[in-house]
Structures are given as C-alpha cells and as structure tokens.
Amino acid sequence: MKTVKRVFATTIVAIATASAAWAMEATEETSFGIVSGQVTDAENHSLPGATVQIESLHTGVTADINGFYKLPNLKPGTYTLKVSYVGYNPIYKKVTITNNKKLIVEDIVMNEGVEIAEVNVKGAFSGQRRALQMQKGSMGVTNVVSADQVGKFPDSNIGDALKRINGINVQYDQGEARFGQVRGTSADLTSVTVNGNRLPSAEGDTRNVQLDLIPADMVQTIEVSKVVTSDMDGDAIGGAINLVTKNTPFRRVLNFTGSTGYTWISGKPQWNIGGTWGDRFFDNKLGIMASASYQYAPGGSDNTEFEYVEKKGEVQLKEAQVRQYYVTRERQSYSLALDYQFNPLHKISFKGIYNRRNDWENRYRISYKKLNSDAGDQSVVIQTKAGSDDNKSARLERQQTMDFTLDGEHNFGNLKVDWASSYSRATEDRPNERYIGLKLKGSDELNFGDSFKDVGLKQPYSTLSIPAFNAAKWKIDEFTNSDQAIKENEFKERINFTLPISKGLYGNTLKFGYKYTVKKKERNTEYYDYSDAADKYIPNWQDNFVSEVRDGFMPGSQYPIGTQFVSKDYMGKIVFDKADGAELYEEEAGNYKATEQIHAGYIRFDQKLGKRLDATLGLRIENTRLKTSGVNYIMDEEENESLKPTGEYKNDYTNLLPSLLLKYKTSEDGSIRASITKTLSRPKYSALVANKSFNLADQEATIGDPNIKPTTSWNLDLSIDHYFKSIGMVSLGLFYKDVKNVNIETLGYYTGAELGLTGNDDTFEVTQNMNAYDARVYGVEAAYQRDFGFITPALRCLGFYGNYTYTHSTTRNYNSRLGIEDGDDVKMAGSPEHTANASLYFEKNGINIRLSYNFASSFIDQMNTGSRELDRYYDKVNYLDLNASYTWGKNTKFTIFAEANNLLNQPLRYYQGNKDRTMQVEYYGVKVNAGFKINL
Questions:
Q1: Closest residue by Cα to residue 777 from 711, 869, 824, 854
Q2: In this predicted model, what pLDDT tens digit does every residue of 579-616 receive, in sequence order?
Q3: Structure-derived torsion over alpha carbons of residues 216, 221, 224, 228, reported in degrees to the nearest 10
Q4: Are the beta carbons of 875 and 833 closer than 8 angstroms?
Q5: pLDDT over threshold 60, residue 625
Q6: Distance CA 125, CA 133 (A)
Q7: First to last CA, the chain
Q8: How confident is the model at residue 548 (pLDDT cuts 50, 70, 90)?
Q9: What is the C-alpha separation between 706 and 666, in angstroms, rounded?
Q10: What is the rounded CA–CA span in Å between residue 398 and residue 522?
C-alpha cells in the first residue's frame, strides 16, 4: 500500500508540474530562443534519429521516434542548421532568433543521397535506413530493427524477429522463439524491457520475459544495447533488449492486416488480424495511437525424450518417452499511446500495452520407466494431459503481461527534467489441469529395458508392442487435478535531470537521476490426487480410448503410433470435488512469495573532446533488498505428510556499476567505439526460496537456496563501423566479459532419505540452482548489409544482410558440488560458439522477395553434478525462411504476401554428454501463411 501511495504522490506532483507549465508560453520560460521542428522525407515520412547540428556552436541533437527535434537555449542571432541522415544528402538551413521571435519552427525535408538518387527507396531499404541512422547515432554498441524491417521477415512474434540481429540467439518452445540470448550468454543474463521498463515474467521459475507473448506487429522498433550506460538498468550482462511500442503519430495513420496459415501437425487453418489507427488533434497538441493484434494458431509437435544416468561406471538408459502434442495458441495484444504537448518545452505522454496468450494443450505420453532395473521394477505408463470441458478439454495456460507508463518531459532554462511512473503485471493461470496415467508393470515376458534398440543413439525405441488394455493388468497410476496461479506486480518510479554545462568543441553535459522499483511475486498451486475415487469419477475408462499419435510422426515410424489413450473429452466432463481427493503436499511445496526492492541512483557525464572524440563517464549504484518465504514438504517416520513454512529469508546487497564509453568519428560515415562497463544479473526468485518440492511419482525434486549470489561482469568492448552513402553498413567488434558467480541450473541425484524423506531409498533427480563457477567470455562479431548497386546500378534492387558472432568461453573457480575433475573442458552455460544470420532480398516495382537463414551452434544448457557425460546440451539449429510480397497503390497502399517458416523442419533437440545421445527431440514441421495489408 505504501508503494501505491508513492506512485500516486509522484504522479500527482508530475501532473501538477505539467499543468503549471501548460499555462506558460515558451517565450516566457527563458530569455533564450528555441528552434524546433520535424525531419521528413519527400513523401512526408518521419526520419527518426536524424542528426540536427549547429556546427558553429559544435552542438546538436537527435530527432525522436517521429522525427521531431528541439534545440533550446540559443542566444539571439543567425545560425545554420546541418541535418544528416543515412542515405540522404545533408541539408543546410539558416534560422534567425531575435528578441521578438524566440520560437522558430523549422521543418526539414531531406533529399536522397547521391548514390541512390535513382532508386525508389521504400520497403526494406526504407526500414533499413531508419534503423541504421539510430545505430549510427548511439554512443554504445547498439543494433536497431525498425517495424518496416520486422514486417519483411515471416516472424509472428518478437522472439522470432530478434534472431535476425547480430549476436542474438533464441531458444524455442512449440516452434516459436521464447527466450533471447545476447553475445553468447544465457537468457538469464539479458534484460527485456518495453519502452525502457523491464517486464515481469509470467512464469514462476524465471525472470526472463516470454517473447512469444508479444506479436511482432505490435512493436515500432527493437533496440538491442550491447553496451549499457549508467542511466540504464544495470541487470544486462549480455545486453538489454528494448521493445518500443507504436508511438503517437505526427499525421493520420490507419492500416489493417489479415492472413491465414497452416501447419501439417494440426491440419487446421490459422488466423491473424491486426489494425492500427492514430491521429493528432487540437492543433496537433494531442496525439493518439491505438493498435490491436489477434492470432489464432492450432499447431503441435512430435516429441521423443530420453533420460540417461550413470550407474556402475557406465551410462545407462533409465527412461524413454514418446509424446504427441496438440496445441492451439491464441495471442492477443492491445496498445495505446497518448501525448499532449503544452508547448515546445513541456509535454506528457502515456503508453500502455496488454498481451495475452492462451495455450490449449493436450499431451499424449508413453513412458517407459526404470529401464535399467530388473524387469519386475520396470513399467510403461500411458498418460493423457487434459482440462475441463469449458477449456476445450485441454490444459489451458493463460499468460498475461501488461505495462502502463505515464511520463513527462520539461525544460526549465538549461535544465531538462523527465519523469515516469509505471505499473507492470504478469500472470500465469493453469485452471483444472488434469492427468490420467495407466500403468503396466514389467515382467520376464515384458522386459522393456531389453527391448530397446539404438540405445545411446539419436532415436532409441522399443521393439515390444504395447499390450492391450486389461483391467487385471493395467492400473490407474495417476488421476489428478490441479490449479496453479502465478502473479508478479511491479511499480516503478524514476526522475532524471539533464544539464548542459558548456557548449563548443569541448562542451559537456551532466545527467543524474533516481529510480525506485518494487516487485512482488507469488506462486500458488493446489494439487489433488483422485486415484482412490476413480471408480466414482471414471468407472468406464476402458470404454473411452482414442488413438492420438498421428500418422507421419516425425521422429520415426518405429514408435507405437496406434497406441490408445484415455479420451480428453471423457476427462473434460469430470467435475471434481476436493473432498474426494488427497492433497499432494509434495507438489505444493513449490509455492512461494518474494518481494524485491531496488533503489538505483546514477550520474552520467558526457564530454566532447574536440570534433571527433566523445566520452561518457558514469556510475550507477543499485541497492537490492529481497524477502522470500515458502513451504517445505515434510514426511515423518510414520509417513504422515505436511507442509511447514520456511520462514522469511532476507537478503540485502549493493552493486557499484561504473562505466566509461569512448566514440571516435573516423569520418562523417564511420566511428570507432570502446568501452568498459560493469553489469549484473540477479538470480531467479524460485531459486532463492529455502524449500524442497517433490514429484514422488516421477522421482523428481527441486531445491532452493537463499544464499545464491547475483552474477556480476566486467565488460570490455571495441568496435568499428562504416555507413555507406547508399543504404548499408559494415562493422566489426570485439568483446570480453569477466563474469563472477555464474548462476546455473544443475541436475544431480539423491536418495529420498538424503532429501529428508525418512525411509525413502528411491533415487531422485534433483534440480538446483547454484553459483557454479566464474567465467571469461571472448567474442568477435561482424555485420554487413548493403544493396548491390555499388557493383552496377542495375543491381540496386538486390541486397544482402548478414552477420556472424564467434564466442569462446572458459570457466574456473568451480563449486565443489559440480564434481569437476582435472582435464574437464567446461564451457559457460548458454553460450553458443557460433551464431550467424544471412538474408538475400530483391525489391523492385513493389515486389519484395526475401530468403533468410539463421544458424546457432550447440551449447551446454544444464550441468550434472555427477558426470560430464550427463550434462545437457542444446543442439545446433539451422532455420530457413522464405517470404514474398507485392505492394501497389499511391495514396492507399495494398500489399499481398506469402510466407513459409522452418523450411528445413529444424527440430528442438537436446542431447546428453555426446551429440548422438538424444535427450529430447521435438519436431514442428513447416508453417505457411498468406494474407494482405492495407495502408490508408
């Protein structure tokens, strides 16, 4: 409640300040003059990031996302403005400020650059130009992708669009990119923000933002900062990904999109619709932009999974699974942007975005268990995952995120003040998630372990047929229903002050500010087993079987495709009464609450050192205060079960994060950048809870540790770039990271007794986060993009976009629990050695064709505490996508397009120890999509 009051008070003060400014004319604010305006092209399209300079004063500014610029605090006199933009000839404009005319509005229209004067610069070229201009003007190493560029790739969500950026790799779930990795670091070490605000996570066991929640067409710009300055959040070891939602327009905007697609696993059509409207009112003082997107995508995957353990000095297959997924994904997103400009010196704005993704999932699983044990201890379990009939008899996972920000910008003489108050929320709900498992024990006649072929290779399989269902042999092993709710709320307040101290060749600016963030997260699960009441709820389960493993199962026809499962519709009709169930405390032991407060202050000093060299020196201080609480599962000697509160654990730490950035302009079209920065990454909340949670049926456990330290890193960067007069650039960069207290997920094996389950000698697979080691990361990244007009003018319609990143990592100072031995070569978790993107495109007379390729090499994903042979690796990926479009029309533009994703049918694959030993492989197939766009 105190937090809400703080936010409310800050908002009131800010609005009061803005309201006071409303009544003031710009000429009354200061005795100095102001030059402001907008930079556009000949077709009245805004040019964000344009550089507007007064060379005689050696000062200048960068235009905002809509091309607007403002040069305040100018003494009366005549000045020459120089306006520069990638792909355009510089424009020079003279303006005169007098005592009677202190407010000058000067709009500027750019002309095409010499090398591309004959080219109709639209589509891919136009989008590239905007992005390159923003990259060129940044102080640190930054990559930018504009909405125009995103629209030229066949990407349905932001994660898929990110994989096109230099140095970024993405991890997949159900055929879509979910988490992003920057510069060979794990997704945990990268921050994702929306309009500068870090989003909370909708999942309970990670801080990572689910990128598949946000449709690609809801974002105006993607900014990836690989070097952060002190005025940015410090939790960005890999980098910071900022998603800029659609901003208020400078003119009327109205467009619509519609498409339909198909995947061969579901055999059902997919639907996508979207629209954007925006305009300005009240003499252009008020701007509004509203966007909406809806996607409905039936899909699924074909999956096999295998678990290996080390026993008596050899690696043995313990469990194998065949899984058929059918998933219908519905994605909705809505955004609203407002701004009100009281006068050229004062404005306030609001931005809000809401995203919701519903996944209705049915999973049909065949599990072969304890394959390395005696035949009598082995079993096969046939499981159906379902949901209630009001959720399509499928497990509903509803994830929602939202972010609402009110901010303002005010100029008082030389002093600029900007502030913001925001609220973010993320939730995940899984109501009525239910499972039924039918178990058949092994025997001398049914020795499943001996029946497996190709063990240790890519696709092990059983040669035994699944016996017919017979009540005398098959038993109900699992019959459960659960409800899970996860929620995280964040309140953020910030205020920044920017004060130019001097102008000229050695001009400088001081910037300082404060940010307060409070986050509250909790997970609550209720889990009940109804096996003892099965006769009441499912008396005729034997009469409700369906065949669900489809023909064409992509891992191979050697798997039992005709296997029968209990029908999802039969499961969906059940109405459970908790009074008939037994509460599974071991499943509820993962519940927790966490509260985190971050107080951050910074100072940033920008110094010009002549015409070519700029320096930025900064220091950020972040104080983190964390409280966690949870419950532990207890089983006493008499097998009585209970949940015992862990009590409240507190942690308080402060990080000093210095930074130094240098930028040397080799010419008007090139720069050399160098920097040294320090950044951090905080452990995920669930890993910090002092609890143990169990899955007794699958013999799995998770352990938390409140003493895990945050990961910190010193980062060194050196890069050089050159921007061509035509649209394009070439760059080369080197980077080094010295990372301390790397926090990774480990997998180990303990008996139940060792975990506190008295008398339980079963071996449990235990997942635990720990500060595993220190690491060094070395890397090289290169990028090139350009049309082929430099070869001959006839080839200006062709272009190439490519980038490559090489990363090498070493580790040291190992946690003793990892069991690292001399000679073990341990790479940093989540660090692919090679990532590459290439795109060849053609654009002429409204026709656009693009072939895109993405590659990432394998990397270690999870470490085993017992043996390097059991470490988990994320396998290499090769993605090939193709899309084409045709655009026509003058005032109203029409576009038709067609897209094909994953032409190589790249699966998601993990392996254990060596590349042939598959741990999981999941195929999604090719996805096609076609539709139209209308821009009025």
A1: 711
A2: 999 999 888 888 999 999 999 999 999 999 999 999 99
A3: -140
A4: no
A5: yes
A6: 12
A7: 46
A8: very high
A9: 50
A10: 16
